[in-house]
Design a protein that fits this description.
The chain is mainly β and about 525 residues long. It has two domains: about 200 residues, Protein Transport Mog1p, Chain A (3-Layer(aba) Sandwich); about 300 residues, no CATH class. The chain has six helices and 29 strands. The chain has a 15-stranded antiparallel beta sheet that branches. It has a seven-stranded antiparallel beta sheet with strand order 3-4-5-11-10-9-8, with helices on both faces. The protein has a three-stranded antiparallel beta sheet with strand order 1-2-12. A hairpin with a 5-residue loop joins β26 and β27. It is globular, with a radius of gyration of 27 Å. The relative contact order is 0.12.
Length: about 525
């Protein structure tokens, strides 16, 4: 809830290789076995050490990474983690690939003797297309425990550098694979077994892959289903009356990190038909009535940097339509400026789609039939469209089909106040996260009422744990026994949001801008 109002953090890293269904090479290369280790130079280690165990229950995998590396966790389901050693020029990235159609790891025989390519062969073909001069040193299939693994080793030249790319494709199922990619320097010419440093890196990657374990996710899936049952029931309780009662006309928030004020927010909540649009009279708006949230924020995330943002969030009471707009400006102490923005809409509507299971003229669920029309049936489609603008992208438009448990942005803002909070329960929602550019799962755990110390005062409150993804950092929202929002805290980022009043903010921030966010461009 509070993290969206802080400056965006852009983490650089290597992107995982793409996947395609290319044809199988006519004559697969013979596998190259592991390289033997030679005696090291005096004072140099015989082997590089493995690091700590990395486990992702959400992704269903566990392994030990390379030692002596910085671990960079990723926040989306495709890129899980990256290990970097800048001094050694190492980078190992690990990602999960979800295929739309089942695919075996190695080629298999299909109907009528037709050979069906596997992911290992297809990846080799793609490497040949992407890097025609690359030298493929290994293409191998092995078993690690119960998992099937395809091993690929490639030497290639990029500019003045020669690098060795070791890749392991670990099969979770025919729809789920894990991609381990280790990039390191390599000698430009000559056999790799003559280079001790390369031998040690190959040995290290091999030992990393030996530790890979694909995890059983049945417990996690069962828990998710239980959460979704409760979510389905609670969504029915998000009635117009409940939403109206939760609205607070004005709120003022303090943003604190490590005990120091770093910013503030002014929030307005009201009933409306749309976003406030510049140049559009109120009587010209014909939208469905719903809730509208406006947030103006100013933060100082680091010395000399200032971030100003304005957001408007609208959702109809029946949750069939939503619109939101978010704009901001990051100003650095050297005077450089970077603007960013996002505009999103989501609509739930009934469309007629072709259903091959129906015969032309067959009676449809609405009781109509027309022999001259193709076989169609009405179905509800829930679609999200988001346009994003930043320094690196202009006008990028993304579309996503939404699940029934998707929660509009305006209701995300209100969620701690509209949940049933007198009984500990857990829920699972879907929400749009702009930094990830994706619709992701949001886990909510309502706790038991107890005493907490907030803003130096001991008071009773209901804690509501909120995290993005199974392993996301937890933000705890605090709600009074009467349902009033008190604040939020994220231990990982050390960010604390506290409700306050206008005089307090004006005392802390002499130039505080506590006015309504500006209207957006009318349409």
């Amino acid at each position: 809830m509070g993290n969206r109002m802080l400056t965006r953090v852009i983490a650089a890293g290597l992107m995982l290789a793409g996947w395609c269904n290319a044809q199988v090479p006519d004559e697969p290369l013979a596998p190259v076995g592991p390289l033997p280790l030679a005696d090291p130079a005096p004072g140099r280690p015989q082997r590089y050490e493995l690091g700590d165990t990395f486990t992702s229950e959400a992704a269903g995998i566990s392994f030990r990474g390379p030692g002596n590396c910085i671990e960079l966790k990723r926040s989306n389901s495709e890129q899980l983690v990256q290990f970097v050693n800048e001094e050694m020029k190492w980078s190992m990235s690990v990602g999960r690939v979800l295929l739309s159609k089942p695919m075996r790891l190695i080629a298999s025989d299909g109907p009528q003797g037709r050979r069906i390519p596997g992911l290992l062969e297809s990846t080799i073909e793609q490497i040949k297309v992407d890097a025609p001069g690359a030298e493929i040193l290994r293409e191998d299939f092995v078993n690690i425990g119960d998992a099937e693994v395809g091993m690929i080793v490639v030497r290639s030249t990029v500019g003045m550098d020669t690098r060795l790319t070791q890749r392991a494709l670990v099969r979770g199922s025919d729809l789920v694979y894990y991609n381990f990619t280790f990039i390191s320097p390599a000698p430009r010419q000559g056999p790799l077994e003559n280079d001790l440093e390369t031998q040690k890196v190959v040995d290290l990657f091999g030992r990393v892959i030996d530790t890979v374990r694909v995890m059983d996710q049945s417990r996690l899936k069962e828990e998710q289903n239980e959460r979704l049952y409760r979510t389905r029931a609670v969504l029915l309780n998000f009635s117009e009356a409940r939403l109206r009662d939760a609205l607070a006309p004005e709120q003022w928030w303090r943003l604190i990190r490590d005990g120091k004020d770093i910013g503030y927010s002014y929030v307005v909540e009201e009933v409306a038909n749309d976003l406030p649009r510049r140049g559009v009279p109120l009587d010209a708006v014909r939208g469905t009535e719903g809730v509208r949230i406006g947030v103006r924020s100013r933060t100082y995330p680091e010395s000399g940097a200032q971030v100003d943002s304005e957001s408007w969030l609208y959702a109809s009471f029946d949750r069939r339509n939503e619109v939101w707009s978010s704009t901001g400006l990051i100003e650095q102490k050297d005077g450089t400026r970077e603007s960013f923005g996002e505009f999103g809409t989501a609509d739930r509507e009934v469309r007629r789609v072709i259903d091959p299971r129906l015969a032309p003229g067959e009676l449809l669920p609405d009781g109509t039939a027309d022999a001259n029309q193709p076989p169609v049936r009405p179905t509800e489609v829930y679609m999200l469209t988001v346009t994003r603008n930043s320094k690196t992208m202009r006008g990028q438009t993304l579309e996503r089909q939404l699940p029934p448990f998707y929660l509009p942005q305006a209701l995300n803002h209100l969620l701690p106040r509209i949940l049933p909070y007198h009984e500990p329960k857990t829920y699972l929602f879907a929400t749009w996260i702009g930094d990830q550019g994706e619709v992701v799962k949001r886990y909510i755990d309502v706790g038991a009422e107890q005493y907490f110390t907030l803003d130096g005062r001991r008071q009773r409150a209901i804690p509501i744990a909120d995290r993005i993804g199974v392993e996301g950092a937890v933000t705890t929202h605090y709600v009074s026994p009467e349902g009033r929002y008190l604040g939020s805290q994220n231990e990982a980022s050390k960010i604390l949001i506290l409700t306050t009043d206008k005089p307090t903010l004006e005392k802390i921030w002499k130039d505080a801008n506590l006015t309504r966010p500006a209207e957006i461009e009318g349409k």
